[in-house]
Amino acid sequence: MHCAIIASVKLQLTKDKAIELRLPRGAGAKSASDITGVELFSSDPGGCPAVRLVFRKKAWHLAAAAKVKAPDGELPACWEDTPRQPSWELPRDFLSPHAALAVNSAMGAFAQSTADAVVQEMATGVASVSEASAEEKSDSGKKRFGIKRAPGAPPAKPGAAPAAPARRPPFPAAGEAVSENGRRFVVRPMAEDGFHLCASLPEFQTLWLSRLLPEGRRPTASSIQVAESALMASVLLQPEFRERDGNALAVFVTRNAVFFAGYRRGEPVLWRRCPSVGGSLAMRAAMRRTLGLDEELVDSVLDEALIDPRPALEPFVRPVLAQLELALAYLAGKHGLKFERALLMGLGAGAAHWATYAEESLHLRLVSPNPFEGLVRDRRVEVDGAEGYLVALGAAIAGAEVSL
Question: What letter would DSSP give residue 64?
């Protein structure tokens, strides 16, 4: 399934089963006033981050936030694995009418692209994993990623990518759903001519996710998203984002990657992964390796300055700032957006050091708000490590189509 920034796309998965896919949108009608957002397969050892948002008294309330037990089993790797369908029930606090599921999938994608690149991807089968990952999975005896073969079709050779069809798929009209080679594509141009923001998940994974929650009971899986897409939506309720009319630059630090996002009047105009740089886990590993620290001491060093962290931290942060400088130049040159402040989201420990480096080298102020700013937090809700809930929060925001 391939989508861009649109309100929703209805997908008829079977004769009697249809769901809607939603992606972040800065403006639109509010369609759900009580929704649960969950991040699946995040590698978080505490479980699946989940939040529940309820709209009442003209404000969005954070009604629940916790790490919930992950579903049994793994995301299917091919059509043949979809019948092995677990049933997953959420705790009572998260039994809202609607659920927005944001999935971390090795076969998913979320990127800023061009029309030619979208058509090229449509011309191939379900995205294969990298050569290294393919060899690893082959050694472990697991089935390879792939689309359902027609009866009698010979199996693909190990390590071979799906063969491209002879015809060239037509480029989809804006907002028109097109199914090609085991995926569904929906494309809408971004603010800059020639660029599109596209998300992709295999249809068999979408079907598996749509059936994950028990039918006939709350919540209903009404929205399925790629984790990065939900991440982009996580800032839409931030006070600073709204005060600046949706003109913002955000740096997202996840466990495994760093992303840059630019917004103009609430609509995304930039999405880029920082190349050759890991996320918070890589940063913490560099701290332990360079400074000889135990894991328990990393946060203390980053937040309390017991030891000077610069020898370990600077080599990690400098490449991020170099790419951030390019993002600033792109937004200024292409979209006339100039920023003196940027949002630093998801980092937690060490944010003050990142802000110091950005001020020194770019004269850019990095601010690190609590992800739940802009929400009214119910009194019984207590959250530790709020930065770990960004994807779940963004999934709920996008699923509810929160408007500016």
Answer: E
Q: Do 253 and 190 fall within a single domain?
A: no
Dist CA 219 CA 227 (whole Å): 19
pLDDT digits (tens, 9 = 90+) for 230-276: 999 999 999 999 999 999 999 999 999 999 999 999 888 999 999 98
Q: Which domain holds residue 27?
A: 2-236+376-400
Q: Does some domain include residue 289? A: yes
Give the phi and the psi of residue 84 in degrees, each rounded to 5: -80, 80
Cα 351 from Cα 96, distance rounded (Å) = 34
User: Sorting pLDDT into bands at 50, 70 and 90, what band is 65?
Assistant: very high
d(CA 335, CA 329): 10
Task: Tell me the torsion sign for CA atoms 259, 124, 41, 377.
Answer: positive
The two counts, helices (H) then strands (E), for the chain are 10, 18
Distance (Å, rounded) from C-alpha 399 to C-alpha 219? 13
Q: Quick one: angle between helices 280-291 and 295-304, nearest 10?
A: 100
